[in-house]
Write a structure and sequence with these properties.
2 helices; elongated
Length: 286
């Protein structure tokens, strides 16, 4: 009988506490990003050529190693040698001056470094929805008129889209967990940026010399902004920096004379602005 009374009391106590604990519940955490990647240390079986495309064939996948034609519009085959094309290799299209548009194969996961660098006529890339990694310098010095990164993307390498002149809008997909330094350096036509809710750090010089960029809102998940991230942004007007940002890098707004930072009083950003003579206002005052 005594045991039953204790059980009933416990149930009543739990019921009374539920509203209180519900109100104190932490915000749900984002699911970790899981990527498949490319199989490592597989033996090269053969190298074959299909309609000017050169492929390296491994045990379980194919890699596009190069292109020897001069077509202006390309659809990259989804298979080669009976294997899915999972990777575009290093310097596969490097310096191609005739290529204007390319459609990537549906199962592609990885674009290696320098793959499309200096393709100065490249305006259109139709990304597939399974791409996970864009490595260093992959699309540097191209002429992309728009940049619609796939939702599957998890990693963007350093200098990967530096000196791209053409696209005006950038949306970082929700699964991206890392971006390399100088990733969008010197994109003089870029006007607006939307960051995601997963990045914890903006790398150094991420938007250095993006002279058309006007307004940026840093999400609350970011705790660190690298040095010179917004330096040389001569059109920059407003940057919203939340209190969650704990570290602000040197020279953040060097050469960006028109910027006003919106940030809470006492924040790391407010202290940075006071120290470096950058105009700032509290969120309620803007």
């Amino acid at each position: 009988m005594k045991k039953r009374k204790i059980t009933v009391f416990a149930l009543i106590f739990t019921a009374l506490m539920l509203p209180l604990t519900a109100g104190c519940a932490a915000e749900p955490k984002l699911e970790p990003v899981v990527t498949l990647g490319i199989p490592e240390k597989e033996k090269l079986v053969e190298t074959i050529k299909i309609n000017d495309f050169v492929f390296n064939i491994y045990n379980s996948y194919a890699e596009l190693a190069g292109y020897e034609g001069d077509d202006t519009e390309l659809i990259i085959p989804k298979e080669a040698g009976g294997k899915d094309v999972l990777k575009i290799g290093e310097k596969a299209f490097w310096g191609n001056k005739t290529l204007k548009s390319v459609k990537l194969p549906e199962n592609l996961r990885y674009i290696d470094r320098f793959a499309f660098q200096k393709c100065t006529s490249l305006e259109i890339v139709e990304f597939n929805q399974r791409l996970e990694t864009i490595d260093d310098y992959a699309f540097a010095e191209t002429a992309l008129t728009e940049l619609k990164l796939p939702v599957s993307l998890a990693s963007i390498g350093k200098y990967s889209f530096s000196h791209c002149v053409g696209f005006k809008e950038l949306v970082i997909p929700s699964r991206v967990i890392s971006i390399g330094k100088y990733a969008f350096y010197g994109n003089t036509t870029l006007e607006s940026v939307t960051l995601n809710q997963r990045l914890e750090k903006l790398p150094e010089r991420m938007f250095y010399n993006c002279t058309s960029l006007k307004n940026v809102e840093i999400p609350k998940n970011v705790t660190e902004i690298g040095e010179y991230s917004f330096a040389g942004c001569t059109s920059l007007e407003t940057v919203i920096i939340p209190k969650e940002v704990q570290k602000v890098g040197e020279g953040l707004f060097h050469g960006s004379p028109n910027v006003t930072v919106v940030t809470p009083e006492g924040s790391a950003a407010a202290k940075f602005c006071d120290k470096n003579g950058v105009r700032w206002v509290k969120p309620d005052d803007k």
